[in-house]
């Protein structure tokens, strides 16, 4: 009998322990990475084998964990699930890394790789009357067709020739030269009838076999725009990715990473030069594909995917939100037909199970999906592309709070797959990696053809007030909207309703109140009648006059944009379609809205940030951005990055066809640097300034952040535990001399109370995060139920 160490698949927080079970000889094939059913208390539950060993080792482990327990009383595995391990070596490795990095239990990490309980098709398998396994995979119905190959007899007949059976001879000739068995459809294309094929088979001249049908392989050519001439920049990007695909054999971990930490200083131009030379010399396994909006990144993804598929590798495309990316899915389906499987968050667990199965067996070879698709089991993963890699939806907010881009990076490294991060406005973390030469940097700086970036008009809303226009629509935008629809073109209007209405802004100088220590906007808290910083917890009184210019016209900034729909709807000749959370709650509502807008059932599309992203509608020539300020004043150190990205993406919707586009951007702060840089789509300058700020304040990529949240029904208890943890961290910090580290708090969480639970935060910024994590994981706090760790948090 073998013994196995099992992680229990139960939605239990902090079940860090694993359990030893006996593995009956009838299940002896099982081992590391297998899914099993084990007795756990009174229940039978699923578990994952994380190690297997012999009796000696089991005894030794038992001695350590539970001395006095007899190995002969050990419980046994009830049954195994499936006929091979679910976790490949690479998946096991990734799960272990994830558990350590994101500070969760191994079981929690491994659960992420399971498509969901109900998708296990539990068909019992018995051997000599005893249950030994559950079948979890049902072969998908093989999609095969009858096909023909030539036999030796057929070859002889062809050599002999026959004047009477001319059609048959022709058919034999074609079969002789075919590289693969020929099905009826393919035969017909060569003017061979089904009847002739049948006759050949009857005569023993051809052999009937079955071959796997490449679904959709017929109509594919027409739609795939293969003839489209790549721009030089696109061609270069494709060539670089192809070269790396050729260089890295899938299935093998890459050589030790060249991610030397030496480049911790942002070097401006020096950094750039370094990139170019490193790219030429080595084959990077990871790329940043930085391309302005409309520069044709999707075209690059398609050709890279095509190359990987030709090499027999599988492709994963991660997208921020499936509803926003219907166009990417369509274009991939046009190229690759049924090779494409799609995994979005609204799939049922069974549907998800099917998608997983297709990837695991190679039934499909391109997976497009949202963040959780990064956990799919692949047969032979060779290429991962993360579109709009800066999007925060890649980060899971609940535990385990993983980031799909980071998981993708780890999987790629360990499976020899190439990683491509695509964006017009990359996260500063990725940009920094690119300019410091750690990853390849591919740039698309121009739009193909005659399409240009739109001209941007910045409208000062203070001026509007001065002119007694109290509407949320400026006079300029109003004129442009009417002119646009009059010319039979379309417009998109972005109103960022999600912005906090709780920041304070001066109507005269446009400055907002920010925390002097953290450079993030302060948030008004009614209970304290004060402004609070969500990073360091400091509170500040609400000033009566603007600290910058002394004006008394300092006000809470409410978005006030609800009126926008009404006002625009009343303009002459305008039909508005609205798109936001409320209007897109149902499964396909979003795509339906885009379809209707593309069919010109309305001429203005109005909505929150969803309208800013991913659509390519040729008749859109005008984009209006209301209250650009509210995107920049989230209480988040990434607020500028996100604001810049949103403004750039929104502006990028205009003028994608052959008609020039224009953008009207409304703001109370027209001199705001981020707004002016976004208007010019000057990412480089923006990134340079932002990196300098991040460096000074120890924000990523220069420092790492860990957010610890303590929750409790009783406020007092939450504070006690949080205080204790903060003291613990500070004492370790002094004892271990951590590299530059700041420990902030405890202080009430941004949303101080959720579902009757009080939430208290401690925030650690550090250049020694590994040590910080290690010290917490070795402490008793690791398993305390009401302590949550969020590594690299998205804070807002
Ligand atoms: P991005 O994702 O970078 O914003 P897209 O991939 O959506 O850009 O491309 C924008 C538009 O340009 C699409 O309509 C696409 O078909 C078109 N396009 C892309 N590459 C080329 C090219 N080389 N020549 C002509 N049109 C192109
Ligand atoms: Zn002011
Ligand atoms: Zn602060």
From TrEMBL:
Keyword Protease (UniProt): no
HAMAP family assigned to the protein according to its UniProt record, in alphabetical order: PriA
Cofactor note: Binds 2 zinc ions per subunit.
Cofactor dependency: Zn(2+)
Protein keywords: ATP-binding, DNA replication, DNA-binding, Helicase, Hydrolase, Isomerase, Metal-binding, Nucleotide-binding, Primosome, Zinc
Domain called Helicase C-terminal: residue spans: 541-699
GO MF terms held by the record: 3'-5' DNA helicase activity; ATP binding; ATP hydrolysis activity; DNA binding; zinc ion binding
Organism: Succiniclasticum ruminis
Cellular component, GO, one term: primosome complex
Protein name in the entry: Replication restart protein PriA
Binding-site list for Zn(2+) 2: 515, 518, 533, 536
GO BP annotation list: DNA recombination; DNA replication initiation; DNA replication, synthesis of primer; double-strand break repair
Similarity remark: Belongs to the helicase family. PriA subfamily.
Domain Helicase ATP-binding: 278-444
The EC number(s) this enzyme carries: 5.6.2.4
Subunit field text: Component of the replication restart primosome.
Keyword Coiled coil: no
Recorded superkingdom: Bacteria
Enzyme type, top EC level: isomerase
């Amino acid at each position: 009998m073998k013994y196995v160490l099992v992680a229990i698949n139960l939605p239990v927080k902090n079940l860090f322990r694993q359990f030893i079970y006996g593995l009956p000889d009838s299940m002896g094939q099982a081992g590391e990475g297998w899914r099993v059913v084990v007795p756990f208390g009174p229940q039978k539950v699923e578990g994952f084998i994380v190690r297997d060993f012999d009796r000696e080792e089991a005894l030794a482990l038992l001695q350590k964990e539970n001395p006095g327990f007899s190995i002969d009383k050990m419980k046994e595995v009830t049954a195994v699930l499936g006929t091979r391990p679910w976790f490949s070596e690479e998946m096991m490795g990734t799960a272990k890394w994830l558990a350590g990095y994101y500070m969760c239990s191994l079981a929690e990490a491994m659960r992420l790789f399971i498509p969901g309980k109900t998708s296990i098709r539990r068909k019992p398998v018995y051997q000599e009357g005893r249950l030994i396994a559950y079948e979890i995979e049902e072969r998908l119905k093989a999609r095969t067709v009858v096909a023909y190959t030539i036999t030796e007899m057929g070859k002889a007949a062809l050599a002999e020739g026959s004047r009477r059976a001319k059609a048959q001879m022709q058919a034999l000739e074609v079969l002789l030269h075919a590289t693969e068995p020929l099905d009826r459809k393919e035969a017909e294309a060569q003017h061979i009838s089904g009847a002739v094929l049948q006759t050949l088979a009857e005569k023993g001249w051809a052999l009937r076999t079955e071959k796997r049908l490449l679904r959709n392989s017929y109509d594919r050519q027409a739609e795939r725009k293969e003839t489209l001439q790549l721009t030089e920049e696109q061609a270069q990007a494709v060539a670089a990715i192809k070269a790396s695909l050729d260089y890295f054999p899938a299935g093998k971990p890459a050589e030790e990473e060249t991610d030397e930490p030496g480049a911790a200083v942002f070097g401006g131009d020096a950094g750039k030069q370094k990139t170019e030379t490193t790219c030429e010399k080595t084959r990077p396994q990871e790329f940043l594909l930085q391309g302005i909006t409309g520069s044709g990144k999707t075209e690059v993804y398609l050709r890279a995917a095509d190359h990987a598929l030709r090499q027999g590798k599988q492709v994963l495309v991660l997208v921020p939100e499936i509803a926003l990316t219907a166009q990417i899915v369509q274009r991939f389906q046009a190229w690759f037909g049924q090779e494409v499987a799609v995994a979005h968050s609204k799939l049922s667990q069974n549907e998800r199970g099917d998608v997983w199965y297709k990837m695991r067996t190679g039934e499909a070879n391109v997976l497009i999906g949202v963040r959780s698709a990064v956990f799919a089991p692949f047969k032979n993963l060779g290429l991962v592309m993360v579109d709009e890699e800066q999007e925060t939806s890649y980060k899971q907010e609940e535990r385990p709070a993983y980031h799909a881009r980071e998981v993708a990076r780890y999987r790629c490294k360990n499976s020899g797959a190439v990683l491509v991060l695509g964006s017009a406005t990359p996260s500063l973390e990725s940009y920094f990696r690119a300019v410091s030469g750690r990853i390849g940097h591919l740039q698309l700086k121009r739009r193909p053809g005659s399409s240009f970036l739109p001209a941007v008009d910045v409208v000062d809303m203070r001026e509007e007030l001065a002119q007694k226009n109290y509407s949320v629509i400026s006079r300029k935008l109003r004129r442009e909207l009417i002119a646009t629809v009059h010319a039979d073109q379309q417009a998109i209007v972005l109103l960022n309703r999600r912005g906090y209405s709780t920041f304070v802004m001066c109507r005269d100088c446009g400055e907002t109140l920010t925390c002097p220590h953290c450079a993030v906007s302060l948030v008004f808290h009614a209970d304290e009648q004060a402004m609070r910083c969500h990073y360091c917890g400091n509170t500040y009184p609400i000033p009566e006059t603007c600290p910058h210019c002394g004006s008394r016209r300092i006000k809470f900034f409410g978005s006030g944009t609800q009126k926008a729909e009404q006002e625009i709807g009343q303009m002459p000749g305008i039909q508005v379609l609205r798109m936001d959370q409320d209007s897109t709650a149902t499964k396909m509502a979003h795509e339906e809205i885009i379809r209707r807008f593309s069919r010109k059932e309305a001429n203005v599309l109005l909505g929150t940030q969803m309208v800013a992203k991913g659509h390519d509608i040729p008749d859109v020539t005008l984009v209006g951005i209301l209250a650009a300020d509210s995107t920049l004043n989230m209480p988040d150190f990434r607020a500028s990055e996100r604001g810049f990205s949103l403004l750039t993406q929104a502006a990028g919707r205009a003028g994608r066809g052959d008609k020039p586009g224009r953008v009207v951007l409304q703001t109370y702060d027209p001199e705001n640097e981020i707004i002016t840089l976004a208007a010019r789509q000057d990412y480089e300058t923006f990134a340079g300034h932002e990196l300098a700020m991040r460096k000074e304040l120890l924000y990523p990529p220069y420092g790492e952040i860990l957010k610890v949240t303590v929750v409790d029904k009783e406020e007092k208890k939450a504070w006690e535990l949080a205080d204790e943890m903060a003291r613990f961290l500070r004492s370790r910090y002094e004892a271990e001399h951590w590299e530059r580290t700041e420990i902030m708090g405890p202080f009430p969480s941004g949303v101080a109370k959720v579902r009757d639970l009080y939430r208290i935060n401690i925030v650690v910024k550090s250049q020694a995060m590994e040590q910080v994590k290690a010290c917490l994981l070795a402490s008793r706090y690791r398993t305390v139920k009401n302590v949550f760790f969020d590594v690299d948090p998205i804070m807002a």
